[in-house]
Amino acid sequence: QGKRKKAHILFVGLDNSGKSTIINQLKPKKERIPDIVPTVGIGEENFSLGSLDLTAFDMSGQGRYRNLWEHYYSNCDAIIFVLDSTDKLRISVAKEELMQLLRHKEIQRKRNLPVLFFANKSDLRESFSAVKCAQLLELDKGEWVKGGSPMYRGDPHSGLGRPWHICASNAHTGEGLNEGIQWITEQLL
Ligand code: GTP
């Protein structure tokens, strides 16, 4: 009881997936802002969430900024990867970005760095379920950290080779966010 933990969390994912909206929703009510605009470069927010004292880095998902992500890898305690679960066309692009991230040497050095996935925009009718998103990203398949593409190494539970979890979310109402944050908190405490 009373145990608090400082944590740096990186929010990554393609542009328009909902990173800023999720961060805004996680903040205390009186600190929220009414209008979210696309992130230019990197946003930083500090706030308390349950037993975590969070620094949330909001990494712009726009292509021209994605190379900035890696500068934050050495100093992070957890990664939240946000997916637009309605964006069927770009799920392979998201997978490519995820693969690059997991192959990065700073990330590989952190064997236990937890990765939480939000399959966001679950309120929209055309959204894929969390399970479907996990399948499309091949999260439960094989070895991600070596080589170019995920290779199945015979252990169906090996997955990303690190703790991960996926849940569906609606960033506008906050639905699903608690489950994910609870999981991350358990990993960090
Ligand atoms: P970049 O800053 O460009 O990387 O985008 P981002 O990932 O921060 O996305 P942002 O939070 O700006 O949200 C993009 C758009 O999706 C906005 O119009 C949001 O209102 C909308 N959006 C975010 N989350 C949800 C959701 O859960 N459901 C629905 N229906 N719309 C959402």
General description of the model:
- The protein has 189 residues and is of the alpha/beta class.
- It has one domain: P-loop containing nucleotide triphosphate hydrolases (Rossmann fold).
- It is built from 5 helices and 6 strands.
- Strand 5, helix 4 and strand 6 form a beta-alpha-beta unit.
- The longest helix has 13 residues.
- It is globular.
- It binds guanosine-5'-triphosphate.
Major sheet: arrangement of strands? 2-3-1-4-5-6
| Oligomeric status | single chain
The best one-word shape is globular
Count of beta strands:
6
Q: What is the CATH superfamily label? A: P-loop containing nucleotide triphosphate hydrolases
Radius of gyration: 16 Å
Biggest sheet features: 6 strands, mixed
String of helices and strands:
EHEEEHHEHEH
Number of domains: 1
How far the N terminus sits from the C terminus, by CA atoms, comes to 12 Å
**What percent of residues are in strands?**
15-25%
Percent helix range: 10-25%
Structural class: alpha/beta
Q: Which SSEs are present, and which pair or pack?
A:
Elements: E1 5-12, H1 19-26, E2 42-49, E3 52-59, E4 78-84, H2 91-103, H3 105-109, E5 115-120, H4 130-137, E6 164-169, H5 177-188
Parallel strand pairs: 1-3, 1-4, 4-5, 5-6
Antiparallel strand pairs: 2-3
Bound molecules: guanosine-5'-triphosphate.
